């Protein structure tokens, strides 16, 4: 079973093996990554986190868990430009620096093993966590509590005043949604470092996870364009055209399709 097959096998488990699936993403990018060894090593981290938690009901241990992770050195990666290692879980476990989503996935696995209730929230621009029933969200980068006004401020810092806080911004994320977001992050990080082949690996995974958007197909089409694969580029541009609701984008996609060579089939 190759890493991509192992990744989807994790998703088919009940419940899905979210953390292991994320490790298989790392293994797909680096043949030296041993998912089995990382899972074994994670037990030591679990013990160190557990030993530093206060004696409270598990429903009150969400924030202490994140603070304990912070005490052990887990922080948001501030290195600029951000590198793919900030989203590859094997690297984040080693350096203890990562994107909020990567830190969140580690926190969710620790919470699962320690039976602490916690879920992920696909907040725009900054992945967050929630203890079910709580009136606040938690920042995986240190455990800060975020109430509705804090969320509005965070959203405004990320996207400006024109986007308003909506219910879907605070919805619980499914394992598939979190892994698709991780794949999109990696696609962009690899692309920003001109690593088109690794970006393509992530772009393919995004679409294999389902519910791909026009921008997802367009991102892969641009990678195929760079790699001089016009037939594959045409396929993705046509799908982006079908999904796009922006008339200007649709016009540009139509023009771009018109400049591609005719589709050829090799027998």
UniProtKB/TrEMBL annotation:
InterPro entries: SirB1_N
Top-level lineage group: Bacteria
A Pfam match: TPR_9
Signal peptide stretch: none
Protein SirB1 N-terminal domain segment(s): 41-183
PANTHER family for the chain: F-BOX ONLY PROTEIN 21 (PTHR31350:SF21), SI:DKEY-261L7.2 (PTHR31350)
Family stated for the protein in its record: Belongs to the UPF0162 family.
The name this protein goes by in its record: Protein SirB1
Organism: Pseudomonas chlororaphis
